[in-house]
Amino acid sequence: MVSDMDPALNPFKPGSGLRPPALEGRDAERREFDLLVTRSKLRNYDRGMMLSGLRGVGKTTLLNNLAEHAENRGWLTIGIEARPNEAGVAAVRAKLGNELAAGLRRFSRRHKLQKTLDGLVELARGFTLGVGVGPAKVELTLGRQAATGDLDLDLEELVEAISEVMKKRASAFGLFIDEMQDLDADLLGALLAVQHRASQREWPFFVIGAGLPSLPAVLAGTRSYAERQFAYSTVGPLSPTDAADALRIPVERHGGEFTSGALEILVEASGGYPYFLQEFGKAIWAVAPETPFTGEDALLAVEEGRRALDDGFFPSRWNRATERERRYLRAIAATGEVAPRSGTVAAAMGLTTTAVSDVRDSAIKKGLVWSPEHGRIGFTVPGMDDFIRRQPTD
Ligand SMILES: Nc1ncnc2c1ncn2[C@@H]1O[C@H](COP(=O)(O)OP(=O)(O)O)[C@@H](O)[C@H]1O
Ligand SMILES: [Mg+2]
C-alpha cells in the first residue's frame, strides 16, 4: 500500500502530443513502421505511412514515437506541423527549409560527417530562400546551389540530393508531418509528386503523416495515385485491456495499485479514448489518499476528470465555433444520435441540406465534426454532444 500520492509524481499527462507514461495499444503500427526502417537498411524500400483518426486519440504521440525510433536507427528525420490558414506556401516552405537545415546539422553531428552534408545544408537554405522570389522565379544562387523558385523542382532536387547521401549510408530520409490535412495545397501536391518519383527511382525518402479522418480523402483529392502511395492506418480508441494497462502500468511503476473495480470504472468512462484516460488517471492520483485505488476513488476521479474536460478540452472546441456553427452543432447534439444523417440535422434546423452545406464544411474544416460515412455527420471527440447539451442557449 502506497499512501501520500505525491502530486509532483503524478505520471498522467492529458495534453497534445505529450508523451504518455505508457504508450499502449499501438504495437501494430510500431511494428509496421519498424519493418519499413529495417527494409530501408537493406535498400528494399516500402511505402510511407498515413495515420488518421479523431482528435485526442494519440496520433501526434504515435507520430513522435515513430520519428524518434527512426532517428535512433540512423534515419535523417524532420517533423513539421501544418496549420489551417497558414500565411501561404511561403511560411510552410520556410519552415520546411529551416527544419531541414537543422535536421541535417543534427544528423551530421550525430554521425560525425560534417563535410559531406554541408552542401545539403546549403541546398536546404536555398530552398527556404527560394520562396522569397515568389512567382518571378529568379535564380537565387548560394555558393554552387541554386533555387529556381519552382516548388516542385526545388523540392525534387533537394530530396534527390539528400536521398543520394542516405542511400549510400543504407539510411533514409523521413519527413514526419502532423495535421497533414491542413497542409498548403501546393506543397502537398509537390510532396506527393516527389514521394511518387522517389518510389519509382528507389530513393529512400518517406513521408509519414498524421491527421484527421479526412486526411485520406484530402490526399486522394490532391493526387489520384495517393491511394496506393502509402500504407494507411486508422488510429482509434484503445481496447479495454490496453486502456487498463495505460492506467495500471504507470501507477505500478510508482509502487501503487488499482482494485479491478476501480480500473473497470475508469476504462468504461474513458471509452478507451487516450486523452480521457490521461485525464482520469491524473484525477484519481489527485483525489485518492492512498492506493490501492478503490471503486469509490474511481467514481470521484471520473467526476473530477469530467470537470477538467468541461473547463478545457470541450470549451477549446466550442469557443472556436462561430454563432452559425454553434447552431449547427446544437442541432447535431439534439438528435441524440452518434452519427445522424445530414438531412435529419438540416431538417431539425428547418433548412435544406444544401442550405447548411457551407456551415457543415466550415465545421468540418475546423475539425469540430466529421463525416464517418457518406451523408452522415458526427462529432470528432466523444462526449462533445453531452457538453453541448449542457450549454445554456443564448
Ligand atoms: N497509446 C496511448 N496510450 C495512452 N495514452 C496515450 C496514448 N496515445 C496518446 N496518449 C495520450 O492522449 C493524449 C492525446 O494524444 P495526442 O497524441 O495529442 O492525440 P491526437 O494527436 O490524436 O489529438 C495525450 O495526453 C497523450 O499523452
Ligand atoms: Mg495531434
Summary keywords:
alpha/beta; Rossmann fold; binds magnesium ion; 394 residues; two-stranded antiparallel sheet; binds adenosine-5'-diphosphate; Arc Repressor Mutant, subunit A; 5-stranded parallel β-sheet
**At the first level of CATH, what is the class of the largest domain?**
Alpha Beta
The biggest beta sheet is recorded as: 5 strands, parallel
Total count of helical runs of at least 4 residues: 16
Are any ligands bound, and if so which?
adenosine-5'-diphosphate, magnesium ion
Can you tell me the CATH topology of the largest domain? Rossmann fold
Number of domains: 3
Give me the strand/helix succession.
HEHEHHEEHEHEHHEHHHHHHHEEH
Provide a short characterization of the protein structure:
The chain has 394 residues and is an alpha/beta fold. It is built from 16 helices and nine strands. The chain has helices at residues 27-41, 59-72, 88-111, 114-130, 151-168, 185-200, 215-222, 226-229, 240-253, 260-270, 274-287, 295-318, 323-335, 342-348, 353-365, 384-390, and strands at residues 48-52, 76-81, 140-142, 145-147, 173-178, 205-211, 230-234, 369-370, 378-379.
